[in-house]
Write a structure and sequence with these properties.
about 35% helix, alpha+beta, five-stranded antiparallel beta sheet, 2 helices, about 160 residues, 5 strands
Length: about 160
């Protein structure tokens, strides 16, 4: 026996025919898709802000921080130091990790170019390491499109299940 969940409207509304379990199973992907869209959009806005208003300054790699992601393996993230335009000394660890084979010229003591947001200097990217160019935004765009696909799929499944 299905217990209807009254989501909205009257009893004739198709969405009222969903059980509580079905509703949770259908809203889960919808919420996940929304979260993925927001994360991708945030990265795209951050990249656009750094491209348009960011300031490029010389910096140096202090060290490579070893990082183990949840899925295993070993990644390295550079810890970069630089001075802002007003002389404030900054030190930041990159959010992007790479395998040792992919490190390229980024080594301890290497000179790099740092691009930072003058309004929020902790928001920075190391050029050549982090995503900064328009062409490198493809993963953020992929996340947004994947999120939209998941949301649309969940919404269609919700309607099909309710009918």
């Amino acid at each position: 026996m299905r217990t209807p969940v009254h989501l909205a409207g009257t009893v004739s509304d198709p969405l009222t025919r969903l059980t509580a379990v079905e509703t949770v199973l259908l809203l889960g992907p919808l919420l996940f898709g929304g979260w993925v869209i927001l994360r991708g959009r945030r990265r795209l806005r951050r990249a656009a802000r750094l491209r348009s208003a960011g300031i490029s300054v010389p910096g140096s790699v202090e060290c490579l921080e070893r990082y183990t992601p949840p899925r295993g393996g070993e990644l390295f993230r550079p810890v970069v130091s630089w001075s802002t335009a007003d002389g404030t000394r900054m030190r930041q660890t990159s959010a992007v990790g790479r395998r040792q084979a992919d490190l390229g010229p980024v080594r301890r003591g290497a000179e790099v170019t740092v691009r930072y947001d003058p309004a929020e200097p902790a928001v920075m990217w190391t050029e050549g390491w982090d995503v900064i160019s328009r062409g490198d935004d493809r993963w953020s765009w992929a996340a947004v499109f994947f999120g939209v696909f998941v949301c649309v799929s969940a919404a269609v499944q919700m309607v099909v299940t309710a009918v």
